[in-house]
Design a protein that fits this description.
It comes from Pseudobutyrivibrio ruminis. Residues 118-247 form the PurE domain. This protein has helices at 2-14, 19-28, 43-47, 60-72, 85-92, 130-142, 158-162, 165-170, 184-191, 212-219, 234-245, and strands spanning 31-33, 38-40, 53-54, 78-81, 98-100, 105-108, 119-124, 146-150, 173-178, 196-200, 226-228. It is α/β, with parallel strands linked by helices and 247 residues long. It folds into two domains: 2-108, no CATH class; 119-245, Rossmann fold. β9 (173-178), α9 (184-191) and β10 form a beta-alpha-beta unit. It is globular and about 65 Å long.
């Protein structure tokens, strides 16, 4: 898309296309309407990252159609989140992709070489938080970041957290993922000088209210430098972490 815009501007500069015609093309190209979806073809130009497909609620045929349109718009690397194994198998019949079952993520075009400024640490309170953590870790890698995974280091055994102190203090951004009471974010926020992005998960017994308890704990943290995303939103945390890591 950037090459296409550059070519258009060069055409204006060289007198091969009028300013009015160029304006018309720019106004009519920001999205492609394929009936059930309107693909934002200018997102990479505006935000640095192209469209990302949220797979839940979409049929395999719809996702295939969206992928086709994205590729027609020169987007060769595509991330699909919240996609079931069954949908991934159907899409594989039309497009070459890599599927990560824990994260429920599919990637077309591979993971690029990291170009972020530092390391994003993805830490979980427990093993049960790993599916959300893998969504975060793979999204961050897809966006061009070096990722360090530190799993099952919750506060029930604080020595496990402290055994990774070097990774924690050297991180450029930390994504702290925890259910139950969500205390991991506060602990990491008290140890690290970098931003900490807290992700509450829906892991826990009845009084955890499907992640609301962890969400409220993280929002009420007394540690400084913590921001909080929605319950189970590993993708959102990774996107924010990538923006920080590329500043």
């Amino acid at each position: 898309m950037n090459d296409e815009i550059k070519e258009l501007l060069e055409g204006v500069k060289n007198g091969n296309i009028s300013v009015d015609d160029a304006m018309h093309q720019l106004k009519t190209k920001p999205f492609k309407d394929i009936g059930y979806a309107k693909l934002d073809t200018h997102r990479a130009l505006r935000n640095g990252v192209g469209e990302i497909i949220y797979g839940a609620g979409k049929t395999p045929a719809q996702i295939i159609g969206i992928i086709d349109t994205m590729k027609e718009s020169n987007q060769d690397r595509i991330l699909i989140t919240r996609i079931s194994p069954e949908k991934a198998d159907e899409i594989k019949k039309a497009h070459d992709l890599t599927y990560y079952e824990d994260a429920k993520i599919a990637i077309i075009g591979g993971i690029p070489k990291a170009n972020g400024k530092g390391t994003i640490v993805v830490a979980t309170g427990g093993t049960s938080d790993i599916p959300v953590a893998e969504e975060a870790a793979l999204t961050a890698e897809f966006l061009g970041n070096n990722v360090k995974r530190i799993y099952d280091v919750g506060v029930a055994g604080i020595h496990r957290t402290l055994s990774h102190l070097d990774d924690i203090v050297d991180a450029n951004v930390i994504i702290a993922i925890a259910g139950m009471e969500g205390a991991l974010a506060s602990v990491l926020g008290g140890l690290a000088e970098c931003p900490v992005i807290a992700v509450p998960t829906s892991v826990g017994y009845g009084a955890s209210f499907g992640g609301i308890s962890a969400l409220l704990s993280m929002l009420n943290s007394c540690a400084n430098g913590i921001s909080v995303v929605n319950i189970d939103n590993g993708f959102g945390a990774a996107y924010q972490a990538s923006l920080i890591n590329h500043r």
